[in-house]
Amino acid sequence: MKITGDEIQQRMIEHELLGPGGLQIVGATITGQLDLSDVVAKKPLVLRDCETEHPVLLSRAQFSLLDLRGLVAPSIEARGLAVEHHLRLGGARLTAAESIDALHLRIGGSVYLDEGFHAAGTVTLSGSRVAGVLMCGGGRFEAGLNLVDLQIGDGIFLNEGCDVSGGGRHAAVRLRGTRVDGQIILREGRFSSSVALDLRHVRVGKDLLMPFAGIDGQVQLEGLVYEGLPRDATVDEWLSLLSERTLRYSAQPWAQLAAAHQSAGHERDVRRIRVAQQRDLRRRGQLSRWGRGWHLIRGVTVGHGYRPGLALVWLAGVLALSVGVVLTSGAVRCSAVEQVGYALNVATPLVKVDAARCTVDVGSAAGQLVLASTWLLQILAWAFATLFVAGFTGLVRRNA
Which of 23, 74, 282, 348 has its CA 20 to 30 A from that of 263? Predict the structure, then answer.
């Protein structure tokens, strides 16, 4: 069956020819340009399994339902298209470099780019509003999927065989600035490019299901906000992703992950996340040379305030070193037990024991070494004790 684009346009314009089910054409070859731009038809248009050699033009048109499943065409231009219910493109095959140019869609139902949908070129739905879901399971997108600044009601499903590659200088999947009231599900999808996912400033009202097995490339997560714990990936996988597969250090993704686990009561995981964040900051953050050095000291001594017990380990090491210096010097005159007490007295700010009978041969080089080393060790002991108290107090405040 053959039909011209002008004939379809005429039928759409002549409302008296449309029955309650709208216009339905199945398996036709459309000759000439199918231009339905600015057509207002508040009834369904079904062009199922049709084929055309020309782009399909739908910009600013209005339909109650638009079913283009199985369409074979170079491209679809649909800027400002409004559909009261669903837009169906499952199984469609589009061959042009710009396969779908559909900025600012207004869809009252859902958009389906699934069930064998194949776009050889870029698919752009940026700035659109979809009340239901954006379903891309089983769709193949060879030159990127642009979903910037979308507003989605129920969710985005890039799952179950969704395969997105390319993207050029952009990410394979660009979701920057998108708002989703429901879920984003990437389970069993595959996304490959130098930057696989751009999720900057995305807000997810419910769950984020993002296993990392299908992500082949870097990710951009600055400003990503989601409710609850991210699913389908372990804490260790998230730590690896944030520190090794993001383009640069950013505090916000770390803070979001920590806040999610804080809300779930996973305090141990929160500390692990915060410590890993500080390591990433030292490695990739914009710190001065001195700032990087002090950052390293804080990390080694108290785990940046999240492991204050480390300071006690260092304090114990200082005390042991003080005892070793005194016992091996030969310059402290008293029993071995009293020498241990003397070493603890001069090194620790917390413990005082009876070592009154001990004297130091200050005239000898060994005695001078004992005095100098114990002064230094006392400074270190005070520092580690102070770091422990400060770190423990800060940890208690954060957990309050």
Answer: 282
